[in-house]
Specification:
About 30% of the residues lie in helices and about 25% in strands. It is α/β, with parallel strands linked by helices. Strands 4, 14, 15, 16, 17, 18, 19, 20 and 21 form a 9-stranded mixed β-sheet that branches. It binds ligand LLP.
């Protein structure tokens, strides 16, 4: 469900102290609405859970890269996990400290590596020998030393949707942990390269921390062997992946439990723990607000057609993801529910937010909120069907910041020629 920051007051859904009916009237729909305090609370939960252990929480920018979100996290002391020059540009524009940035990703371009080195990021999570050699050459040409970690593939089954599981040998990610030591030894001989970390990321939306702990044992073992061989390993990066509860009754993975389990394994080792959480910081802090355009029946089926679509939030279409959908005006308790498909206007059968969902009856003009849309929502949106992208609003108490303007028709054709 949505976080405490989204709640009903006198029958109307609020984000913090801002009511969603007024927000929809003032800013239009579809609109992403984020609670600044929910983001801060989730980040603080990470910080307090790991307090006392040398650590750095590097927010995975891919989950939500809006500048206002990044700036909120930067002010709270977050580092950042990036996967492109574009994400680094955003972090810098939002006031993030480049020295707190780790650069992940299986295919970095030479231009991206150069940019990151010039900006002085903390380290590169490297996924191939070719990448390490490229970083070495560029670092030498810039007269710099690049701190690197090797992202190892620990061959652990993350038990999640196959598209977001990454830690098995058959996946494209990382370097097989069985070959990692040899790669470190070769990397240590390269000019401009300082192998100082071990990293892994086994997947996303993990509801059970077991596989994460299993992976952490494997990378801890590797770090110990590397240190014994004389490499000055200082960072242990366990990636992101903690899952959130999208369905009623589902239990989110608990950061406190993860911290309790990791603490005794890390204490006194002189390693800095890096984590790269994305979803678990921002998912529950956001909703997608949209308006019902019409309802229609085809045969036995009832369709609720809304003004948001798969181009705004692709998770249901791409991962068969479940998102709870709430009416912005609470339905009276005695009104019987209907079963409907909630769909967008895009010309694809895959353009749905929910199928066969029980909801309170709705009419054209009613507002609906898709919950848990703060992560991998707007960032995965597109202009498909030439639909301008939604606006993003950041709520802080009763204050509302237009964190990204709704796109206009002019925005749609900017840069094109004929
Ligand atoms: N670090 C690395 C190297 C990653 O690849 C990812 C996510 C993260 C950190 C952050 O993981 P998180 O804490 O958010 O689980 N679009 C998909 C999720 C893709 C995740 C990709 N990598 C979805 O909507 O479920």
């Amino acid at each position: 469900m949505c976080s405490d920051s989204f709640h009903y007051r006198n029958g109307t859904l609020f984000c913090e102290d801002a009511d969603l009916v007024s927000l929809a009237e003032a800013h239009g729909t579809p609109a992403y609405v984020y609670s600044k305090n929910a983001i801060a609370r989730r980040f603080e939960a990470y910080k307090s859970s790991f307090a006392g252990l040398p650590h750095r929480i590097c927010f995975a920018v891919k989950a939500n890269s809006n500048l206002a979100v990044l700036a909120t996290l930067a002010r709270l002391g977050a580092g950042f996990d990036i996967v492109s020059a574009g994400e680094l540009h955003r972090v810098l524009a939002a006031g993030g400290d480049p020295a707190s940035v780790v650069f992940s990703g299986v295919g970095k371009t030479a231009a991206e590596i150069r940019f990151a080195l010039q900006k002085g990021i903390r380290s590169f999570n490297c996924e191939s020998e070719y990448e390490i050699e490229t970083i070495s050459q560029i670092a030498v040409s810039l007269n710099r030393t690049a701190s690197i970690a090797i992202r190892v593939n620990p061959d652990v089954n993350a038990v999640t949707h196959p598209y977001i599981s990454t830690g098995l040998r058959e996946h494209k990610f990382g370097i097989d942990i069985a070959h990692a030591e040899a790669v470190y030894r070769r990397a240590a001989k390269l000019p401009g390269i300082a192998p100082e970390g071990v990293s892994c990321h086994i997947g996303s939306q993990l509801l059970d921390i077991g596989p994460l702990l299993e992976a952490s044992e494997k990378v801890l073992d590797l770090a110990a062997r590397l240190r014994a061989a004389g490499l000055p390993i200082r960072d242990l990066d366990l990636g992101g992946g903690l899952g959130v509860a999208y369905r009623p009754g589902e239990r989110a993975a608990c950061v406190q439990t993860l911290a309790e389990r990791l603490r005794p394994r890390l204490e006194g080792l002189g390693l800095t723990l890096l984590l790269e959480p994305g979803r678990s910081i921002v998912a529950e802090a956001g909703i997608l607000l949209m308006r019902v355009l019409l309802t229609k029946r085809n045969g036995q089926k009832l369709f609720v057609v809304v003004d948001g679509a798969m181009n705004d939030l692709i998770r249901p279409a791409l991962y068969q993801a479940h998102h709870e959908i709430l009416p912005v005006r609470e339905a009276a308790a005695n009104v019987p529910a209907v079963t409907a498909d909630i769909v967008g206007p895009v010309c694809e059968t895959g353009d749905f937010f929910a199928r066969g969902r029980e909801i309170a009856p709705v009419e054209p003009g009613d507002l609906l909120a898709i919950c848990m849309a703060g992560a991998y929502g707007f960032v995965l949106s597109s202009n498909y069907n030439s639909r301008p992208r939604a606006c993003e609003l950041l709520v802080d108490g009763a204050e509302v910041l237009v964190a990204r303007k709704r796109e206009t028709l002019e925005d749609l054709i900017r840069g094109e020629a004929f």
